[in-house]
Amino acid sequence: MRLLIGETEVPVTWENNASVEALKELSPVTIQMSMYGGFEQVGPIGQSIVRNDVQTETSYGDIVLYSGNQIVIFYGSNSWAYTRLGHVDLSQQE
Predict the structure, then answer these.
(1) DSSP secondary-structure letter at 50?
(2) C-alpha distance from residue 24 to each of 1, 43, 73, 79 (Å)
(3) Are 83 and 55 in contact (CB under 8 A)?
(4) Residue 63 CB: number of other CB atoms within 10 A?
(5) Is the peptide bond before 11 cis (omega within 30 degrees of 0)?
(6) pLDDT tens, 17-44?
(7) H or E element that contains 43
(8) Is the pLDDT reported for residue 69 higher than 90?
(9) C-alpha span between 92 and 94 (Å, rounded)
(10) Where does residue 85 rank: exposed (0-12), middle (13-18), buried (19+ CB within 10 A)?
(11) What's the pTM value of the predicted model, to 2 decimals?
(12) Is 69 in contact with 50 (CB distance < 8 Å)?
């Protein structure tokens, strides 16, 4: 599975879980994301997928599933119940 921002492929280490597998089955999918809260980008998948939310602390680069139907990519940190999907393999400056 690949993450593209615009036409740029971004390196990601994906988790090995049922949510990532469900997301792969939807591919290709385009998610329009918008800034939220000053520390994340969020966008709807268009349907709910399997989730296994646990209370977690996120940091820049983390990719999570929120409420089973939204993808969140963090450029800051937060603590909430999410399902981890992956991590962008770039430095915070990148």
Answers:
(1) -
(2) 6, 17, 17, 26
(3) no
(4) 24
(5) no
(6) 999 999 999 989 899 999 998 899 999 9
(7) strand 40-44
(8) yes
(9) 5
(10) buried
(11) 0.93
(12) no
